[in-house]
Amino acid sequence: MSRRSSTRRKALMTVLAWAVGLLLFFPILWTVLTSFKTEAVAIADPPVWFNFDWTLENYATVQERSNYGRHFWNSVVVSVGSTLLGVIIAVPAAWAMAFVPGKRTRDILMWMLSTKMLPPVGVLIPIYLIFRNLGLLDTRIGLVIVLMLINLPIIVWMLYTYFKEIPGEILEASRMDGAGLREEILYVLTPMAVPGIASTLLLNVILAWNEAFWTLNLTAAKAAPLTAFIASYSSPEGLFYAKLSAASTMAIAPIMILGWFSQKQLVRGLTFGAVK
Amino acid sequence: MNKLTRALLGATATCALAAAAHAETLTIATVNNGDMIRMQGLTEDFTASHPDIELEWVTLEENVLRQRVTTDIATKGGQYDVMTIGNYEVPIWAKQGWLVPLTDMGDDYDANDLLPAIAGGLSVDGTLYAAPFYGESAMVMYRKDLVEKAGVTISDASTWAEIKAAAEAMTDKDAGVYGICLRGKAGWGENMAFISAMANSYGARWFDMDWKPEFTGPEWTAALTDYLDLMTNYGPPGASSNGFNENLALFQQGKCGMWIDATVAASFVTDPKDSTVADSVGFAQFPAKDGMDNRGHWLWSWNLAVPAGTKNEEAAKAFVAWATSKHYTEIVAEEEGWRAAPPGTRTSLYENSDYQAAAPFAEMTLNSINAVDTSAPSVKEIPYTGAQFVSIPEFQGIGTAVGQQFSAALAGTVSGEQALQSAQALTEREMRKSGYIK
Question: Do A128 and B32 touch (CB under 8 A)?
Fold first, then answer.
């Protein structure tokens, strides 16, 4: 009886998980499908699901009109660069907060997180002026700096949480064996926190890849990443949904593939220490 | 060997310096629409005659573009050499000294050929500050077959009474046909463009001569009441989230009897490639209220402007002159046919018999644009210029906030009267804060 009830519950949970998964995936699926339709079929009512003449015309148009390669490379440099720079700064900060906490450590953590609560548009003009004066407008290095700064609180928080799970005694033992601070962080702490650091890296690459306020407002032609590439196909006066969908699919494909191949690492990192 | 290496290095450096001295790169910010994208594909003609100028395009969605170029020009960021801006921004920016006056555009430019209504909206004290790339007014687009079936008429000089009667007669909700489709999505450039034009035609004005808003006056009340009545009884469901694109899709699929919107829509709804009703579309002027000769005064143009302070001013002006010239129109006609020529900017286009034959909406578009007077959009005296908008910097914020009230009234969450009262209160508060009302 109880086994039957447990099986039923398991089946129910599986169905529920699939339903939620499909619900979350539906917008992406619909975007991909629309990218293979003509503009007329894309707006058809009732919507056409699979029974249409599939065409690659939208991809050809997007390829012809835009320099996808340049946008893609800018996205790679900006997202990977800002994440690596963020981790380099965040590892010592998180180490200090996790293993040498002061009276105000929690306040500092909360304060860092509170910077995420400010609407970005509120600081657009000051940042724009600073960038203009430093010659950083429309440069990849400028975007790396600004995206590193906006994601730094998340990186510090995530690393702090992972580091807290590592027993302090192990670090003490390494110190007794003669390890200095550098050796302690590089050869003891970091290898133990690899799943956590890896998931932090992945999550922040995704966040930086998808960031669409600063990347649109601080770039023009040279450093514009894939967010600007998508924005160039959106129009309130004219139906270009199929082309927009093709551009969106091309923009999200790399990060989805990365997410797909690294999902085990990502989930393991995100649940690191969750059951302790 | 050493000598040869030095000579080669010297020659390379000289070439590099010469190239650096001559090559100019123009960064052009533009909006994503059919005409602008077409222009990007035809620039070889320009670069062939100006081999020393390279073009870099930044194409963005309209609202993103507006935020981007406004930030850049206000902070003198210097990211762009040519900007695509609307006729709302041009007079405001020109008065700030942010734009280069376009007084010397070359001998062939023929600035007198620009449509007076369009050129007037882009000039300050008689000086042109932006060159129009395409222009539009608003008009009625209707299904001739449905009008005939319903036994009603829509005259070329249509009236609101005719529109209401036709909407009622054509509505067949069971068949999924709605008599009228109008904008309902909140935004100063969305529902407020239409409702402001409708209010103009009802004799309403946004502000009296002391900059006090007039939403609770009889004209605005009548205009909003009729708008809500039309849309509630004869409009499609969920109209409070419909903008230009949503209505375009509905009309192209044969679900709207009438659609009153920007004249640029005419080329979309008559294109058999995308529209199922391409063969049966009729056109009429923006409706007037019985006994009042005022047709909304909707005027919009996308224009190319050169920001003051650009390092490439001459090259930028040369590009703007090319893109808005008669010669460019001829290139478009040669490559893609006269129907694709950018509309609403030059008198000569509307005198061209080939264009008249290819574009059945040409005459109505011209009449609609010519009927606009941006200095007197209302029948009452006003302290501002404008059309379906008010040419003051505060209008974007106020217009969108008022649009949210009217959209809520269409969705049924507040009454029309409540929406007007809220609009009055919030506009008065903002105008007081901005120092217009003492």
Answer: no
